[in-house]
Amino acid sequence: MPSLSYPLALELKKELQHTNAEVITPDNENYVESISRFSSSWEKDAGAVVRVTCTDEVSKVVHFATQRHIPFVVQGGGYSTTGSSSTYGGIIISMAKMSRVIVDQASKTIAVEGGATWEDVDRVAATFGLAVVGCTMNKTSVGGTSLGGGYGWLTGSYGLTIDNLLSVKIVLADGSVITASITDHPDLFWAARGAGQDFGVGTEFVFKAYPQKDPVFGGYLYFTADRLPKIVEFANRFEEGSTGNVGFFFGFSALPNIQDTAIFALVFYNGPREEAERYFAPVLSQEPFINETEMMPYPKINMMVNKAADFGGRKKFGGTNFTLPLKLEFMQELYEDFDRIMKTYPITSASVVKFELLPYTELIKVPNDATAFSNRGRYYNAVTIFCWHDPELDPKMRALHLDMVHKIGTRAGIAKSSEANQGVGVYANYAGHEANARQLFGGNLPRLQQLKLQYDPDNVFRKWHDMFLHTAVNSKNG
């Protein structure tokens, strides 16, 4: 597949000369910043970066690229776990300037452009006393999160982001624009909710919004390793009497100037301090050496995970699942493995193993075949992020990371469960390319593949997770 040559770059600029789009080529002073990513190992030298401002400009760029067989990718926040927002020699469609958020108070709906971050959404929604189910790390873009599923602190009350999606405007591979909803193009709407990045560019989303009172209770706590048993004990009782207004993340993290890896907890309670402190009393009483919990505006709780959101350095991101109860012996073994790695290799303090407890009651009310999203079940997401700086360590760190993800999934996840009707156990937005489409979409894959042949027969949108890789059905470009 040809790359974007200099003459083609000039042709692209001419194509967009009467628009507000900005074409950034390698000779532009903003080029290096425009290709930077969450992990420097995902950064690639693109032929051009196009900062679009509207759906029509996205359509023009997509049509230009597909007609000339030039590879292109879409960048929202730059946090894609597969590196799918970068390309060697191709075109990056940057959505950064498409960040408008419009609230309809009468219908309690919020229209959001695909390049907006969840921080943008939280800020605007809060001025109307509203909130949507967004991402727990609000630096990420609305488009990337929503098309892949979307877990947030409000998931326990209202389900996933896609469960609250009313419509999405999508630019298809031929440059045409479709607005999909339950009533219009329902087959594409089915696919967009969980696998949308494989079908087109989401440029506008309309979500249900909900009244949200401030403040809420939340924040980080850090403990010494001897507190792990009590933290695991609390986690194992999470399902006992918990309502949808809580969330509890915990795990292991390296901290600067701390000899041993710390145990951390990130807590959320959508209600008064007295209720929150009573609910989290078994955790709060464990004498944390750092306690950052407080009452705060709802948007602030979505900033907590941003501690690990800085661009730069080499990173490996991955996800799996776990079920309760967690065995203390296993958790101690996992802690020792992670602590050993932290002490053996020069890894930054952003490295983390995290267990995310968000109530699944609302989430599992929707069947796994009701949308393309196939990760619904009586289990939770686990996420691991390894960080380092030396490129020579890439193979070793990726192998260690993969081993840890595999260990959690096989020894603590649904792989050990006999319960029927479970989901796939892998959240596609957390997965790297080690997970193939069948592992990510399970029984929904055949329908997705047929829809791909209808809406994207040349498999142009395959950078996120290729629907046809290692499967029997082939697209024209598979």
From TrEMBL:
Q: Which keywords are on file for this protein? A: FAD, Flavoprotein, Oxidoreductase
Keyword set includes Cytoplasm = no
Gene3D superfamilies the UniProt entry points to? 3.30.465.10, 3.40.462.20, Uridine Diphospho-n-acetylenolpyruvylglucosamine Reductase, domain 2
Has keyword Secreted?
no
Highest taxon above the source species: Eukaryota
Question: What start-end ranges are recorded for coiled-coil regions in this protein?
Answer: none
- Pfam families membership: BBE, FAD_binding_4
Provide a Gene Ontology MF annotation, just one.
oxidoreductase activity
| Annotated FAD-binding PCMH-type domain residues | 42-212
Cofactor(s) of this protein: FAD
Stated family:
Belongs to the oxygen-dependent FAD-linked oxidoreductase family.
Protein's UniProt name: FAD-binding PCMH-type domain-containing protein
